[in-house]
Specification:
The protein is α/β, with parallel strands linked by helices. The protein folds into two domains: about 160 residues, P-loop containing nucleotide triphosphate hydrolases (Rossmann fold, 3-Layer(aba) Sandwich), CATH 3.40.50; about 70 residues, no CATH class. The chain contains ten helices and ten strands.
């Protein structure tokens, strides 16, 4: 198992516990989605995996514990986070946003490795090649999302965590971005996707978890959850 979470509990400085014992796995090369209402704990789960918030319980990646590791070390181990809101550096050019991913590259990478990784990203997202010298702030929302995903890919992750990639995008751009996620997954990168567009997330994933108030309430194949009356009523508008 690539990612293994067991009894993951997480709280914030005010002492309020947000996650109440999450069990979740992602296999090698798998695309898994995590759906739920606002405030259910989806983003907190991703932040806990990356060591951005204090957490207890089992967090293991490729058989090794993540407990006690700093966020840069977790990234270097092969996990990349694409945060909600994209998190691009607006004053830097597209190419410099991609190059900055080299600061969290695995320790053995060379400058040639970084250049090759950037070439692969711009082949996947041609618009980034076309706009490589433009500042990130000048890109559209969809292009900024592609840049955020591309920056994560430059680090050659085994697992990519995505937090609400459709947020604020026009429907045609959402479809384009999700098509790219399918391509990335087919190239061997495992994905854990947090997404409020539950229908689209379930359509492209193999397995899914439903989280409600910090607890996993349902899990199974995405195909089964798409037809589950409870999921349909709560998240699919039917």
């Amino acid at each position: 198992m690539l990612l293994d979470l067991a009894q993951l509990r997480c709280g914030y400085r005010d002492g309020i516990e947000v996650l109440h014992g999450i069990d979740l796995t992602v296999g090698e090369g798998e695309l898994v989605t995590l759906i739920g209402a606002n405030g259910a704990g989806k983003s907190t789960t991703l932040r806990a995996i990356m060591g951005l918030v204090p957490a207890t319980g089992r967090r293991a990646f490729a058989g090794a514990s993540l407990r006690g590791l700093a966020t840069p070390d977790i990234a270097a181990a092969g996990i990349a986070l694409v945060p909600e809101g994209r998190g691009v550096f607006p004053g830097l050019s597209v190419i410099d946003n991609l190059r900055i991913a080299g600061t969290t590259w695995r320790r053995t990478a060379t400058r040639g490795d970084l250049s090759a990784a950037i070439d692969q990203v711009t082949a996947l997202f041609p618009v980034l090649a076309e706009r490589r010298r433009q500042p990130a702030w000048s890109l559209s929302g969809g292009q900024q999302q592609m840049l955020a995903i591309g920056r994560a890919l430059v680090a050659r992750p085994r697992l990519m965590l995505l937090d609400e990639p459709s947020l604020g995008l026009a429907p045609n751009l959402v479809e384009e971005v999700f098509d790219k996620l399918v391509t990335i997954n087919r190239q061997g990168v495992a994905i854990l996707l947090v997404e409020q567009n539950a229908y689209l997330a379930l359509e492209i994933s193999q397995r899914a978890y439903v989280i409600d108030q910090g607890v996993v309430t349902l899990s199974g194949s995405s195909a089964d959850l798409l037809t589950d009356p409870r999921v349909q009523a709560a998240y699919l508008g039917s």
